[in-house]
Amino acid sequence: FPGPLIFLSGVGVQGCHGAPCFNSFLQFELKATGTAHFFNFLLNTTDYRILLKDEDHDRMYVGSKDYVLSLDLHDINREPLIIHWAASPQRIEECVLSGKDGNGECGNFVRLIQPWNRTHLYVCGTGAYNPMCTYVNRGRRAQDYIFYLEPERLESGKGKCPYDPKLDTASALINEELYAGVYIDFMGTDAAIFRTLGKQTAMRTDQYNSRWLNDPSFIHAELIPDSAERNDDKLYFFFRERSAEAAQSPAVYARIGRICLNDDGGHCCLVNKWSTFLKARLVCSVPGEDGIETHFDELQDVFVQQTQDVRNPVIYAVFTSSGSVFRGSAVCVYSMADIRMVFNGPFAHKEGPNYQWMPFSGKMPYPRPGTCPGGTFTPSMKSTKDYPDEVINFMRSHPLMYQAVYPLQRRPLVVRTGAPYRLTTVAVDQVDAADGRYEVLFLGTDRGTVQKVIVLPKDDQEMEELMLEEVEVFKVGMTHSPVLLTPQQLYVASAVGVTHLSLHRCQAYGAACADCCLARDPYCAWDGQACSRYTASSKRWGPRTPRVLSWGFGGRCNTTLGVMDGTAPWSLEGTGTWGGEASLKILDQELSSSRRSRRQDVRHGNPIRQCRGFNSNGECAEPDPWALLTVPRSCSQGPPREGLSHDPGG
Q: How, if at all, do strands 120-125 and 132-137 pair?
């Protein structure tokens, strides 16, 4: 067991000078709340990674050293299905003789689990520095409880899974074809984006060409369609690498790259190599008062938040600083519109080794390099092998875009500087509260905690971060596996195990209306008796649209919000902006009633307005219009250090 699960809750917020705001703190063992469950089957294994969620079977699939696990999404300890898949003793001996560590490297570290069809998974492991893949039968229905390896279908994992378990891979299995960003050699020097399996030609990036890939670390792969035309579909890879264009090389830059799914390579040049591969820099930086930007360049994790438009998801990314002097982390948010604009912009060009990088200004070959064959702009060209040689030659020497992709509002959504930890993972949930719709960020750290954060508009120019809680889940950090959301559950993995957490612990905020209101947790509201889960009316908010991406700046609001909680009438007076001041009016007859069932104010956390009519123990009382509720506030201390408890009384 990883040790006691500690819960730290922040209540109330004011300006905190760049640090996440807390007010008072609660500390206790999270396990006692019944809102967290640790996978408690004692296996001789390590390095757990959540690799696949299967909502059709209500299972999630976890890889670790020598094991493949199938866990129930609703209760990870209810009848887990476990496959022991170790490398052969002979292979382990050969691995040790080659100089590798017998425990930390010479095992079969499962790194890839992808859905093959309705009944089978495709799984790959490092195989004690000899990668191997095979198929796992999971049955057609969850209640079949079928889960076994098919050893007769064992095949080489080269180009699918790394040799070294310390090297990460990013993969996607699409139409029975596996796309993977991976190192393919024993020494870990040849990195490539591969396509294997399936009926199309096996493909890879240009070998030992540092303009294409330069010592990359692959983070994530995501299929994002460009249009209704399937031939335009592109697979995006997120990675970091040593930069060739940095003024002070070597420097590490975050990248987003893309390829067309129907790329067949060139006819004479780039044979069996991608002829549509492009990449651009992802920038996440804080502008300084002197005009110099502080950059976070080490991409750590990516979460793709789907919207109603499958072509325009929202991209959340965690970054850390790369220098040893400045230590910090940040979360930046990107739109696909900005990403596509960069890929449709100028290419980076350099005349020679002593020249500066410039935007390419020569004659652009047709079709434009990076265009998919048979798509919207090239309906007559059915294959990249039909592309003229000048297009293929241009692609080989110009894979980099000149412009970089900047985040929304050109600044991070969350920043951590000077903290004794770094952010490593991110997952995002969308929550409807009484006063609006909020994106709740769950941020994993390298000290084993998960932070629950929302970001609110402070004024027309700035956002204000509010940390709702920090939960210590493990004694070691979450440096690899992503946090994975399902309805009302958050799954977290580390080297020592897997835990699932509830997204909310409303009862922990206290037994008074004011405490519940000051928590400002969009999951929670005062119901007249206790702080409990808030469920929004389905009629109040329409479907989410990409306009939410304004993050509270400049989005016009001129509509009546109607019934806010199903019982109490509210209305929004006049026209304003999400980032400005809008007058929220509670109708007079509602103020005089002490029977309103749900009280919540995420935006302002105002207990005087919300809790009038309730005394401290939750019972109804006659409202006193002149009564003042005094709440102790202390935000200058910043987040608590591990093991410290702050007195709620201030």
A: antiparallel
